[in-house]
Amino acid sequence: MPLKCHLSLPLRYGVLLLVLCSTSASAEPVTPAAGTNASLDENIQSLKQDVLALNRELFILEEELLYPASTQVAVFLSLDVGEFFTLDTVQLKIDDKVVSNYLYTQRETEALQQGGVQRLYVGNMKTGEHELVAIFTGKGPNGRDYRRGASHVLNKSLGARFIELKIMDNESSEQPDFSIKEWE
Predict the structure, then answer these.
(1) Residue 62 carries which DSSP code?
(2) pLDDT digits (tens), the chain, 184 positions
């Protein structure tokens, strides 16, 4: 079986087992005494902290290996609506390939309306020109079904790219506006 470039769950547990074995092998033998329970508890707590720190470092390393900064693209969604549009779903396509479909609960929609931002997609992209299309469905003015799309041509170069899908109420037209913009 070929080796993979990322750290899988079994590899994480293998590293954890290695840490546990090396820690227990270097520990002094425990003899029954009154003070050993306290020191054993301290050792366990210390070991837990070490494992948590190691897991955090492994997660960061895995993210860097899976999504290197030179090819990374991240797409986020934000809302500034409430009166003219209620979000139900978002579909994201990159170069005519669906990369994300998301169905929102009422609680998630409320969190977005209160200023939350959702990471909708993270992936790798080759340098060059790419087309992003976002299709939004929900309830529009007067409670009618609403389906709108927005598109953006991304000229990907080296370095990470961050893109925001934004839905805003437009007071003058009494309709929602859908936009896609790149963060600098």
Answers:
(1) H
(2) 444 444 455 455 555 555 555 544 444 554 555 567 778 888 899 999 999 999 988 887 887 777 666 788 999 999 987 678 889 999 999 999 999 999 999 999 889 988 899 999 998 888 889 999 999 999 887 788 989 999 999 988 888 889 999 999 888 888 888 889 888 7
Q: Are 90 and 165 in contact (CB under 8 A)?
A: yes
Q: Which of 98, 104, 74, 68 is nearest to 165 (CA)?
A: 74
Q: For the chain, where are the alpha helices, taking DSSP H only?
A: 9-26, 36-66, 106-113
The pTM of this model reads 0.62
DSSP state of 96: T
* Yes or no: domain 72-183 corresponds to CATH 2.60.40: yes
Sheet holding 72-80, edge to edge: 117-124, 72-80, 161-170, 175-183
Distance CA 87, CA 167 (A): 9
Q: How many CB atoms lie within 10 A of CB 37?
A: 11
- Token pair 């299309």 is found at 133
The DSSP 8-state label assigned to residue 80 in this structure reads: E
Could you tell me the residue ranges of all domains in the chain? 9-66, 72-183
